[in-house]
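Query structure, 700 tokens:
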């Protein structure tokens, strides 16, 4: 037998085997990842599964080149929001992926995400190494007597052309950090220690990055292109549906989100330790976490679940948080607070009542005020069939019966800072104030619309009503306020609400979980709560920055829209009374020292928030800070004078007073009838009652 004939079967077998191998790899031909971190087979499978499930998202985006481009931009922004690590050459190189990510992700390919991340990690390690070397050896050579400035927000700045240009950017940022701390009376050695600890912590963290870290960041760049509430959870943190530290473990009772490398406070849970302490506010950023008695360790750049794990702990223990207060001009203007961990007690979320009086035309009118911090329900007792289970509606019903016995003339429902809760409860609560009818519409991604409603006849309270809301009133609060507004059942007073009008479901994956938006809430009038929120009938002054807080501040939030109105019967038409109500309200608050104080403070905060650049000249910066302090002190003293209180002598006294208020918020708590917002809402409600009465008299 010739050699050719002997080798032919082997050659044929190898050809067939090669075809089989090529056929298998053709199912998912993964391009070569550049760099050390590479995806696992589980992550490749999960990427393909997630892409398939996202095709059923409420938004129904196509996996096409437009989506690919958006994912690339989102990913680069997530990694380098201030454009201070990547070079322009990197960005040009990544442009080859602009129309490829949709195809890669649909096939379960992750090469682009891992290659980009590996380059980012390389740039970050190099940059932090240079920065730490400068802090160690050249910090005392920095001068602050020229006219140099630093750009505060580089989100839209051009990418640095080369390393020298990036060095110059970081030099100015380091000078800004040092100057900010010098102006807060920190010594050079203290500054060196704090900055070294911050950047060494970041460097240590990035060297510990795993393929799982890359996968989470990259996949969420995809999911959050659909909407901000669609999120991928790794197996490690998939038990968190909407990371809230008030649930399975003791914590501080705050809802957090990851934003541009920072852990940002979204809202505080009513009755939780953070809300009760008064020291932490929505839009504050947490930059350091330490256990009781320990100096906070930097957490900038850490994943959200890692920060949450550090904040959580046994009931009764304390956690120290280094925070950048909302509205701060510099990320280095931080302060440290201490909060004792605890569980959120249901009773502390419970509705409670009070009565205020309004004197008008020689008559004293009694108004009931019911504060509802959350729409709560004891699910365990409810499912056991316990007839005495705790719930918002049962508590409010009892309070209404008590207030009726007190012969109130009108009612105020206070939903300020109420972030929502049980849909079942909000529907039942609406039923106390209307005599049957729809309460909310829910539109699914398929287009099917279902209607939730009050099926029980009768009304527990039929008198005049006002509902108080603010920017932190969300979800179930917006359903209640929207129903009251559509039915003409109550005046809505306060600030435009949060605008959370979407519904999510949690989907199991082969590797982790996917929380995906699959429905939207609509009012009975057909208007969506989403994005727009509830626009009050009468506005109140507010210090809350809508660009920082609310659905409309989130990237890729689903838009406001309308569907067909449900069939419902309005109780009354409030609209014709609104121009006169607003005029009377405006006349009052323009002379009220409490609202003048709020408006003056808001303008000062806006000026501080809107600064594009900061001077790196110490004399200029000091002069600017002194002018700001003088105006802040003057605003505070005008308010104190109106209250008959002694003026403060210095900004130092004011800061000490604010720290005292933060440490002991109950000492500064106002009685309900001294809350200017409650009192003004009462005045508006009495105005409304008077206009109705005058209209009825005119008809006779």
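Result returned for the query:
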């Amino acid at each position: 037998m010739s050699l050719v004939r002997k080798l032919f079967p082997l050659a044929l077998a190898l050809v067939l085997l090669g075809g089989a191998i090529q056929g298998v790899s053709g199912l998912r031909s993964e391009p070569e990842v550049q760099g050390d971190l590479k995806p696992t087979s589980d992550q490749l499978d999960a990427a393909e599964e997630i892409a398939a499930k996202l095709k059923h998202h409420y938004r129904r985006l196509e996996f096409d080149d437009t989506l690919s481009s958006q994912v690339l931009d989102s990913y680069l922004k997530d990694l380098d929001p201030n454009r201070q690590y990547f070079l322009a050459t990197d960005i040009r190189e990544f442009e080859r992926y602009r129309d490829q990510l949709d195809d890669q992700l649909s096939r379960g390919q992750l090469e682009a995400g891992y290659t980009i991340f590996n380059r980012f990690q390389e740039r970050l390690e190099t940059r932090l190494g240079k920065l730490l070397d400068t802090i160690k050896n050249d910090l005392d050579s920095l001068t602050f007597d020229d006219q140099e400035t630093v750009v505060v927000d580089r989100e839209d700045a051009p990418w640095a052309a080369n390393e020298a240009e990036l060095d110059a950017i970081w030099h100015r940022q380091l000078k800004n950090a040092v100057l900010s701390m010098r102006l807060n009376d920190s010594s050079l050695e203290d500054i060196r220690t704090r900055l070294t600890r911050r950047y060494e912590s970041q460097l240590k963290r990035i060297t510990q990055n795993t393929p799982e870290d890359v996968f989470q960041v990259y996949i969420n760049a995809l999911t959050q292109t659909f909407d901000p509430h669609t999120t991928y959870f790794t197996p490690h943190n998939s038990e968190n549906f909407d990371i809230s530290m008030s649930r399975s473990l003791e914590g501080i009772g705050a809802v957090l989100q990851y934003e541009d490398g920072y852990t940002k406070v979204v809202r505080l849970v009513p009755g939780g330790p953070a809300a009760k302490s008064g020291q932490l506010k929505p839009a504050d950023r947490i930059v350091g976490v330490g256990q009781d008695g320990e100096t906070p360790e930097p957490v900038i750049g850490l994943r959200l679940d890692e920060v949450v794990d550090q904040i959580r702990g046994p009931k009764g223990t304390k956690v120290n948080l280094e925070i950048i207060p909302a509205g701060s001009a510099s990320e280095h203007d931080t302060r440290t607070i201490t909060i004792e961990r605890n569980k959120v007690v249901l009773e502390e979320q419970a509705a409670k009542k009070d009565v205020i009086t309004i004197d008008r035309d020689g008559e004293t009118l009694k108004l009931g005020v019911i504060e509802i911090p959350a729409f709560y329900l004891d699910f365990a007792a409810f499912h056991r069939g316990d007839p005495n289970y705790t719930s918002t509606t049962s508590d409010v019903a009892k309070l209404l019966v008590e207030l009726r016995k007190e012969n109130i003339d009108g009612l105020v429902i206070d939903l300020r800072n109420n972030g929502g809760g049980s849909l079942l409860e909000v529907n039942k609560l609406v039923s106390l104030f209307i005599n049957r009818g729809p309460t909310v519409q829910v539109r699914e991604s398929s287009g099917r619309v279902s209607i939730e409603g009050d099926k029980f006849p009768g009304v527990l309270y039929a008198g005049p009503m006002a509902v108080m809301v603010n920017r932190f009133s969300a979800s179930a609060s917006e359903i209640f306020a929207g129903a009251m507004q559509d039915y003409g059942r109550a005046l809505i007073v306060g600030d435009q609400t949060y605008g959370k009008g979407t519904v999510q479901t949690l989907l199991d994956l082969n590797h982790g979980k996917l929380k995906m938006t699959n429905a939207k809430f609509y009012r009975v009038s057909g208007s969506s709560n989403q994005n727009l929120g509830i626009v009050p009938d009468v506005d109140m002054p507010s210090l809350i920055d809508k660009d920082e807080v609310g659905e409309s501040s989130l990237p890729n939030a689903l838009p406001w829209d309308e569907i067909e109105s449900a069939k419902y019967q309005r109780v009354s038409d409030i609209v014709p009374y609104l121009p006169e109500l607003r005029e009377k309200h405006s006349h009052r608050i323009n002379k009220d020292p409490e609202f003048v104080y709020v408006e003056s403070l808001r303008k000062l905060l806006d000026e501080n928030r809107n600064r594009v650049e900061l001077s790196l000249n110490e004399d200029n910066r000091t002069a600017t800070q002194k002018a700001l302090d003088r105006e802040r002190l003057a605003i505070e003293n005008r308010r104190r004078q109106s209250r008959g209180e002694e003026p403060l002598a210095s900004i130092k006294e004011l800061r000490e007073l604010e720290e005292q208020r933060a440490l002991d918020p109950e000492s500064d708590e106002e009685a309900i009838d001294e809350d200017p917002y409650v009192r003004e809402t009462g005045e508006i409600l009495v105005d409304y009652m008077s206009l109705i009465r005058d209209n009825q008299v005119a008809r006779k």
